[in-house]
Amino acid sequence: MSPTISSFIRTVPDYPKPGILFRDVTGLLEDPRGLRMAVDLIVHRYIDRSIDIVAGIEARGFIFGTAVAYELGVGFVPLRKAGKLPGEVIGIDYELEYGSDRMEMHADAVPEGADVLLIDDLIATGGTAEAGIELIERAGGLVHEACFVIDLPDLGGAGRLRSRGCDVFALCEFPGH
């Protein structure tokens, strides 16, 4: 029997704080079969679609996003934490479960009307992904779909993105938080 994406993902209880079940993708990244499977499944979904750019959310979205962009033959745009990019940037402040953060990208990274695939490793509450979508749209891009390796459906993030009109795809999902 061949492995599934979820079989490469380790659950770490009580990390980073008590009561949290952390879904760790490093096992997927460390295993060449798992990494190839994840990238191939994502690429297969988008190979015949008109994607102009892949945007990845820091940090694990960079890992999957660059591999997918390479395979699709398109460029990659990093969505970074504040202060990490040189030159002119545009940014957006957004709320986290406990506080706030800021995401930035180069001001000229997404051409007007570009069809963008947004990628990250996991969607939980959807706040970070929603900020990424808003940032891409502010630059004039159109988010084709938001793609994740893992969805935690009980936390509602995918539904949050869908309610704002963004299609969502995930390779696997885990119940709980």
Mean pLDDT: 96
Find the structural class using helix and strand composition. Answer: alpha/beta
CATH topology description: Rossmann fold
Q: Mind telling me the CATH class?
A: Alpha Beta
Helix content: 25-40%
**β-sheet strand percentage:** 25-35%
Number of domains as seen in the coordinates: 1
Structural summary, described in words:
The protein is α/β, with parallel strands linked by helices and 177 residues long. It has one domain (50-173): Rossmann fold, CATH 3.40.50. The chain is built from five helices and nine strands. It has helices at residues 26-30, 32-46, 60-72, 127-138, 157-163; strands at 10-13, 21-24, 53-57, 75-81, 89-96, 99-106, 115-123, 142-151, 168-173. A hairpin with a 7-residue loop joins β1 (10-13) and β2 (21-24). α2 crosses α3 (60-72). The relative contact order is 0.16.
Secondary structure elements and pairings:
Layout: E1 10-13, E2 21-24, H1 26-30, H2 32-46, E3 53-57, H3 60-72, E4 75-81, E5 89-96, E6 99-106, E7 115-123, H4 127-138, E8 142-151, H5 157-163, E9 168-173
Parallel strand pairs: 3-4, 3-7, 7-8, 8-9
Antiparallel strand pairs: 1-2, 4-6, 5-6
Helix pairs in contact: 2-3
